[in-house]
Amino acid sequence: MNAKKLFAAGLVAAGMTATLATTAVAEDFVIGAVSARTGFMAAYDSPFMQGVNMYAEEANKSGGLNGKYPIKVIERDDASDPQKAAIAIAELLKNEKMNMFISSAISPNAIAAGTMVASKNLLIMHTIASQPTIPARAGGGSYLVMMSDAHMGGVYGKFAAEDLKAKTAYIVTSDFDPYTEFLPLYFKDMFEKLGGKVVGQSNFAYDQQEFSKVVSDIKALPEAPDVIVAMPFDNDFPIFINQLRAAGVKSTYLGPDVLDQPSVKGLGKVVDGVHYVTMAAPGQSDSAGNFVKAYEAKFGNADAYYPAMVGYSAMRMVAAAVAAAGSIEPAAVRDAFGQLENVDTEIGKATFKGAGKAPNLPVHIMRIEGGEGKYVKSIQLDMAEIPTAKK
Q1: Of all helices (H) and strands (E), which one includes residue 315?
Q2: Which tens digit of pLDDT belongs to each residue from 333-362?
Q3: pLDDT at 177
Q4: Element holding 102 (H helix, E strand)
Q5: How far is it, in rounded angstroms, from Cα 11 to Cα 6?
Q6: What pLDDT was estimated at residue 6?
Q7: Beta strands 71-77 and 197-203: pairing type?
Q8: What is the pLDDT of residue 18?
Q9: Which residues does the chain have with pLDDT short of 50?
């Protein structure tokens, strides 16, 4: 998921249920978190932390994590600013004894946090970060807790080739962000491996508001491609899809995970048939659907359930790691986390063993129909199928 675009204006941290603790008893499970409660990244980090705190609140009613360890979450706001993040992380490391850590998904913040907490042997996750190179650059106990960009692109490639029976594709990239730059290239790696052909590529600039050149390049092809894979976010996407369809291009559109927004789904018939990928598909399981209902009832903002469900599910992974470790000693939890297999969560069964620092999870494919996101299917790649991470 992109870490630079505010896609859910109006999300606030006022409803956060974190327990801000300055002291903790020996058996508390203490989570330090420095993420965005203000600034552009709050649209992603705040719902993620709401999910974490929902889990903590529910667990604490039954004795805490795995019924044994009361969970305390100590939060600081980095204001979507790397410098402020570094200051807040240093303050927590100096003053608090923690069992794990959570950082923002912004790459500079995530990498700095991983480096800073490594000496404490802490498990660290980075809210909804999906760039597959972050853990290696952050080092130590750094893990992603949702699908990587490489996994998303690979799933799209397999879906296009095997489910849509597509033979040709056109990709549109932007160096604005690793997500917009590389995800279509991961698609290309898988699609061509399965016999498809990418017949052209165009580039766009973030917030460029005009896609006539890209549309003209597609129209100039001898035949329309079967699929178009492009990652403009919800600020640029409405312009692109309207210009594309107005020009008579009817190719199946495979887009980014941020398309699950009322502002996009409400565009009318022009977006019918548009696909997007997600970690959070309410129609995929009863547990996912029940989470969305509970989240909306608690926070009144169902549109932000995606990051929140990832945060809640990440805590299920933490609980499984603590159970496997047999203690809450930081290094033991960190090491057990990397050996998890088939952990049941609201976003699917998560496996880290043999998968490196990003979980192998099912990727859910959705299609917009009549103003609603309809669940299509879930695809989980074998580790050997996931395209190699690009720097």
Answers
A1: helix 305-325
A2: 999 999 999 999 999 999 999 999 999 999
A3: 85
A4: strand 100-103
A5: 10
A6: 38
A7: unpaired
A8: 42
A9: 2-22, 26
Contact 364, 156 (CB under 8 A): no
d(CA 105, CA 11): 17
Within 13 Å of residue 349, how many CA atoms lie on the same side as its CB? 7
In the Cβ-directed half-sphere of 22, how many Cα atoms lie within 13 Å? 0
What does the alpha-carbon distance between residue 365 and residue 377 come to, in Å, rounded to a whole number? 6
**pLDDT at position 176, please?**
86
Is the four-CA dihedral 150, 152, 157, 158 of positive or negative sign?
Answer: positive
3-state SS, residue 245: helix
Q: Is 34 helix (H, G, I), strand (E, B) or coil?
A: strand
Plot region of 10 (φ>0 → left; ψ -120 to 50 → alpha; else → beta) = left
| Backbone torsions φ then ψ of 222, nearest 5 degrees | -55, -35
CA 191 from centre of chain? 22
Concatenating the DSSP letter of every residue in 136-203 gives HHH-TEEE--S--HHHHHHHHHHIIIIIS---EEEEEE-TTSHHHHHHHHHHHHHHHHTT-EEEEEEE
pLDDT at 2: 47
Q: Residue 89 belongs to what H/E stretch?
A: helix 82-95
**Measured at the alpha carbon of residue 260, what is the angle toward residues 379 and 33, in degrees to the nearest 5?**
85
Specify the pLDDT at position 336. Answer: 98
Whether the Cβ atoms of residue 142 and residue 134 lie closer than 8 Å to each other: yes
Query: For residues 261 and 373, what is the distance between their CA atoms, to the nearest angstrom?
Result: 9
Q: How far apart are CA 229 and CA 176, in angstroms?
A: 16
d(CA 138, CA 113): 7
Contact 359, 144 (CB under 8 A): yes
Going from the C-alpha of 112 to that of each of 11, 39, 103, 104, 387, the distances in angstroms are 26, 19, 9, 10, 26
Domain annotation for the chain: domains and CATH numbers: 29-147+283-360 (3.40.50.2300), 149-278+364-385 (3.40.50.2300)
Q: What are the Cα distances from residue 330, in Å, to 29, 98, 358?
A: 10, 8, 19
Q: Is 90 left (phi over 0), alpha (psi -120 to 50) or beta?
A: alpha
Contact present, 180 and 173 (Cβ < 8 Å): yes
Cα-based distances in Å from 167 to 151, 256, 277: 21, 21, 20
Q: What are phi and psi of 266, to 5 degrees?
A: -90, 10
